[in-house]
Write a structure and sequence with these properties.
CATH class of chain B: Mainly Beta
Number of helices of chain B: 1
Strand order of the largest sheet of chain A: 6-5-4-3-2-1-13-12-11-10-9-8-7
Radius of gyration of chain A: 20 Å
Largest sheet of chain B: 18 strands, antiparallel, barrel
Distance between the termini of chain B: 24 Å
Strand content of chain B: over 45%
CATH architecture of chain B: Beta Barrel
Shape of chain A: globular
CATH superfamily of chain B: Porin
Radius of gyration of chain B: 22 Å
Number of domains of chain A: 1
CATH architecture of chain A: Clam
Order of helices and strands of chain B: HEEEEEEEEEEEEEEEEEEEEEE
Oligomer: heterodimer
Largest sheet of chain A: 13 strands, antiparallel
CATH topology of chain B: Porin
Order of helices and strands of chain A: HHEEEEEEHEEEEEEEH
Distance between the termini of chain A: 58 Å
Structural class of chain A: alpha+beta
């Protein structure tokens, strides 16, 4: 009797989980609802990651082929309040002159983020304006808004089409930033239809001209649930400069708490 | 030598046993300073070269719950005897447990929000031979306990010893037209350098606001320069006891940062108020480029006006900061300080740029445009316009 009950529960769970993975999308006659549903699905698949620790190397190449690099570490805490953005702490390692500098961000969806910058030489924590999210991050082709948390509520969506991308199929969806101070009028994002991960984004500048293209690859699965791209390659079509972000040493659910994202912890970074 | 070997072996042993981390990092700097005018003193020169090092050793254990950090600074100067000096910037043990943090030993802390003057920042003594702008500080021995709560961060300080301010000798520059005899410094408290100082700070951030409230009771970090009786032209530093209440507030409103630091200090039975208030505004992506232009305007006020032992008694500071946001992180900063009391005016220019992953070039120039003789701070420094060039190697 008891065993039968267990089997019944397991069977129900199996039904539920298979339902969760086969999603009902709105029809193509409602392109904005369909676009938003695709973004929500990507977001849903990342729910519950709790926290991550990771390392990043940035390789900057200018139009003459000169190469320079940066290194940093990033800790992220998932915000339990889904109406608000995640928290993250970035510690800079290279170039050496900024070693030990750190940036604490409480991201918001439509309001400007709260950001504090730590200057290790002065031991000073300075609250900074976060309206410059569209400027070059560490002199690279990435803006802070390009790799910070991509909350669903930040954009309005329009589904364009589905098309093949590599050996998979992609939803092609336009995103228009709803937050003030974005550097873009719109983006066009390719999301593959198997795992609902981004594979490519075109960024259009304030004059609505194609400015940059981001290609995301080397996806790896963590805790059998969370996909992370390990190679983000940005090409600036105007300046012909490129930046490659290489993420390494991803760790999930490391036990980080809000305490690790305080101004006191910002002063303790190393 | 043998004891070093034992120590290193011990460190590796501890490392293996408890997962202890060792960090060594630092910088070497080469500096040239050039003064445009002749000094008041025969011993002084117009050009100085110097080298300095800043080395930090950190030992961390149990996921950084325990940390032992030592940071030493040493400078050797070709001619400026007082500038050849060393200081233990940090030598501390730090314990962190969740919301609680305890620091024992020598450390540095920073309070405040303003750019032109760090008014409420009182814990550490200024390293005056290193910087005329008060940005460089000497390490301070302290016991500090901090608690982060839902309603803000509470920090208490106990400081058992005091470091007096350092002043240049007649062979050093920048140098006033009078000499400060630090060997004859004296204190209001009979405990002298061993007076026990206390401080308390509350700070919190909510919405667009960052607020700090601080209290300090102990030896003033700003000496009063007094004429010793009988011996004319001999100036000695006098360190009174001070009690100080202060507030620092910043409102971050999009591209605007609004700032205020204000304090009330009681010293030698007088109560005086001081404040600095102003704003910082940044234009991001000027002229459709990637560079940013920031404007800083601050008003500085001291109730003592001309009698104040500070440059900033009734002054306006205006600064422009241009950040190229290029791969070399080029930054230019130009500014002026104008004294509304005496009409004296000073200019400064700072620039820096990365040369490679481990090298940085910095430039600084300070000039006086007009100096009135009733200006107690700038007038004695009227011959001290200079520029300096630094190359820093980081490892």
């Amino acid at each position: 009797m008891k065993a039968a009950l267990y089997w019944l529960i397991l069977f129900n769970l199996w039904i539920l989980s298979s339902l969760a993975n086969s999603i009902e999308l709105p029809s193509a006659s409602e392109p904005s609802a369909l676009g938003a549903a695709i973004a929500k699905e990507t977001d849903r698949r990342n729910l519950g990651f709790t926290d991550t620790k990771s390392h990043m190397e940035m390789i900057l190449t200018n139009q003459n082929g000169d190469v320079s690099s940066r290194r940093l570490r990033m800790n992220t805490l998932e915000n339990k309040n889904i109406e608000d953005g995640d928290w993250n702490l970035i510690v800079f390692d290279e170039p050496r002159d900024i070693k030990g500098a750190a940036l604490l961000t409480y991201a918001h969806i439509l309001d400007p983020d709260d950001q504090w910058f730590f200057l290790p030489a002065l031991k000073r924590v300075k609250r900074i304006s976060s309206t410059n999210k569209s400027g070059p991050f560490m002199g690279s082709e990435f803006a802070f808004e390009d790799f910070s948390s991509q909350e669903v509520g930040k954009y309005s969506y329009t589904w364009f089409r589905d098309e093949p991308c590599g050996d998979r199929t992609c939803h092609v969806v336009q995103r228009k930033p709803l937050y003030k101070y974005s550097g873009y009028t719109r983006m066009v994002a390719w999301t593959e239809t198997t795992d609902y991960q981004l594979v490519k984004v075109d960024f259009y500048d304030r004059k609505n001209e194609l400015l940059k293209t981001l290609t995301l690859s080397e996806y790896r699965l963590y805790l059998e649930k969370y996909w992370r791209a390990h190679d983000l390659y940005m090409v600036n079509h105007v300046s012909n400069k490129t930046t490659r972000l290489k993420w390494t040493d991803y760790e999930f659910q490391t036990g980080l708490t809000e305490k690790d994202f305080s101004q006191n912890s910002l002063k303790r970074t190393r | 030598m043998r004891s070093y070997a034992v120590l290193i072996a011990f460190c590796f042993y501890v490392h293996d046993l408890y997962g202890v981390d060792l960090d060594i990092e630092g910088e070497f700097e080469f500096e040239l300073r050039s003064f445009f005018h002749e000094s008041f003193y025969d011993q002084a020169r117009n050009n100085y070269a110097s080298i300095s090092s800043l080395i930090e050793l950190g030992i961390y254990g149990d996921n950084d719950k325990h940390a032992l950090i030592i940071k030493t600074f040493v400078r050797g100067d070709s001619g400026d005897s007082r500038r050849s000096h060393g200081d233990l910037r940090e030598a501390k043990y730090r314990y962190v447990n969740g919301d609680f943090e305890l620091t024992l030993g020598v450390d540095k802390v920073f309070w405040g929000v303003a750019e032109f003057v760090h008014l409420v920042d009182i814990i550490n003594q200024t390293d005056f031979v290193e910087s005329v702008d008060g940005e460089q500080k000497l390490g301070q021995t302290m016991m500090r306990a901090s608690y982060v709560s839902k309603i803000g961060t509470f920090t208490g300080f106990f400081m058992p010893e005091f470091k007096p301010r350092n002043f240049s000798e007649s062979d050093g520059r920048p140098m006033a037209d009078f000499l400060v005899d630090t060997s004859r410094e004296f204190y209001q408290s009979s405990d002298g350098r061993n007076h026990h100082d206390f401080a308390f700070r509350y700070n919190n951030s909510f919405d667009v606001w960052d607020l700090g409230l601080s209290y300090f009771k102990g030896t003033s970090r700003e000496p009063l320069l007094v004429k010793e009786n009988l011996i004319a032209d001999l100036i000695v530093p006098y360190y009174p006891q001070r009690e100080q209440f202060s507030v620092d507030i910043q409102a971050t409103l999009d591209s605007w940062l609004l700032k205020l630091e204000a304090l009330k200090q009681s010293e030698v039975s007088t109560n005086i108020g001081r404040l600095v208030a102003g704003f910082e505004y940044t234009y991001y992506g000027i002229f459709h480029s990637f560079s940013d232009l920031g404007i800083v305007v601050e008003y500085m006020w001291d109730e003592r006006k001309l009698e104040a032992p500070t440059l900033f008694n009734n002054d306006i500071g205006l600064g422009l900061r241009w950040s190229a946001n290029d791969t070399d992180s080029t930054v230019l900063l130009a500014g002026t300080i104008y004294d509304l009391e005496t009409s004296s005016m000073a200019l400064f220019l700072e620039a820096e740029r990365r040369l490679s992953n481990q090298l940085k070039l910095s430039f600084e120039a300070r000039f006086q445009i007009s100096v009135e003789d009733q200006d107690r701070i700038l007038y004695p420094l009227r011959n001290e316009d200079f520029l300096r060039l630094q190359v820093t190697y980081y490892f």
